[in-house]
Design goal:
The chain is of the alpha+beta class. It has three helices and 23 strands.
Length: 371
């Protein structure tokens, strides 16, 4: 009897606990009330603005010239270095002038000799002309004197040309700056032999411009004098306003059109060769028309990715209507939508749209409760 008592007590306690729990349960309602879903929402107000595209480019000098001698020789003097500012006419370098001085002297001597021959030929021609006129000289002698005179005149012309050329070559042994600018590169050192046209310096002038390439998809929406914003990563993101002042008529690599941008202002420290980012803004057919909505507001419809629906809330009936829309663009993870039945001021669901249906009764979720 003593051993059975604990088991009986335990059974009674379990049974009593079960009765107590049953008594605490509320009786189920005879009729379930329909669940009204609260929807996150937004009011259609923001329209799509101008579209933006960012292009990469590089700064270039407005004017660049490769300074080179027109004659060959040994460089005996270089007066400037990279980074130096120069003015037009400044002597940048000099060749050994001695060979050209000697050539000039030789040409001048040949001119003196040619002039002496011409004087003699003129004197003899005058003599033969007088004698021929008096009948004391033959026609052959007269023609010969005339021919010698003409030959001597041609020799003088040739000698004068040689003198002029020698003087010019001597003057070209000094390399002068063609315009005001800054020395960008230096390619030769003193005592080197150079040939005509061999670059010694690269001279740059004018305010830097920005060169970039424009995709063919934008060629119809971008034009000359269009304003842009240019930023320069090497200068800590410093920005400058600019305008497109040149668009190439023919496409280059990857069907992109080279463009050139003139800067309205110049950030401090800007140099040719720096990388740049160009921000283009241009209106599209959606500008001022399409509404900007988050991804969660749109429910896909059918195979076409552009066709979708949104749910518009009717405050009078407390229900949502499924409205057809078209997704016309995506920018910064925001959809641009248009629809004949959309209007500014419409309240649309922005989350859980896959659980909604046309005519469904809902209530608006109040975010301020959690603020």
């Amino acid at each position: 009897m003593t051993q059975l008592m604990p088991r009986a007590v335990t059974a009674m306690l379990v049974f009593g606990l079960a009765l107590g729990l049953t008594a605490c349960e509320e009786p189920s309602p005879t009729e379930d009330k329909p669940l009204i879903r609260a929807i996150k929402n937004m009011t259609l107000e923001v329209r799509a603005g101008a579209q933006q595209r960012v292009l990469t480019g590089e700064t270039k000098a407005d004017l660049t010239s490769n300074a080179a001698f027109e004659v060959s020789g040994q460089v005996i003097r270089m007066t400037v270095d990279v980074g130096d500012q120069v003015t037009k006419g400044t002597v940048l370098a000099q060749l050994d002038p001695e060979p050209y001085t000697l050539t000039l002297r030789q040409a001048e001597s040949e001119l003196v000799s040619a002039n002496a021959d011409l004087e003699d030929a003129n004197r003899k021609f005058e003599q033969q002309s007088e004698l021929f006129g008096r009948g004391f000289a033959t026609k052959t002698n007269f023609d010969s004197a005339e021919a010698r005179k003409r030959s001597a005149e041609a020799a003088v012309d040739a000698a004068e040309s040689q003198v002029a050329l020698a003087r010019r070559n001597l003057s070209k042994t000094e390399l002068k700056a063609p315009f005001d600018g800054v020395i960008a590169t230096k390619s030769v050192e003193v005592f080197e032999e150079v040939s005509p046209g061999q670059t010694l310096y690269a001279l740059q002038s004018g305010d830097p411009k920005v060169e970039a390439t424009l995709p063919e998809t934008l060629i119809s929406v971008v034009g000359i004098n269009q304003q842009v914003i240019v930023s320069f990563p090497p200068l800590g993101g410093a920005t400058a306003s600019g305008r497109i002042d040149e668009i190439a008529p023919l496409a280059g690599d990857a069907n992109a059109y080279p463009i050139e941008i003139a800067l309205d202002d110049r950030p401090e420290g800007l140099r040719a060769g720096m990388s740049a980012e160009i921000v283009l803004e241009f209106a599209t057919q959606n500008t001022g028309t399409a509404f900007m909505v988050p991804y969660g507001a749109v429910k896909a419809r059918g195979a076409a990715q552009s066709e979708a629906t949104v749910f518009v809330f009717d405050a009078t009936t407390g229900t949502v209507s499924e409205v057809s829309v078209s997704v016309v663009d995506v920018q910064d993870n925001v959809l641009q939508i248009v629809g004949d039945d959309l209007a500014a001021g419409n309240i649309i669901a922005t989350a859980g749209v896959s659980f909604l249906h046309d005519g469904m009764q809902v209530t608006l979720f109040d975010d301020s409760v959690f603020e």
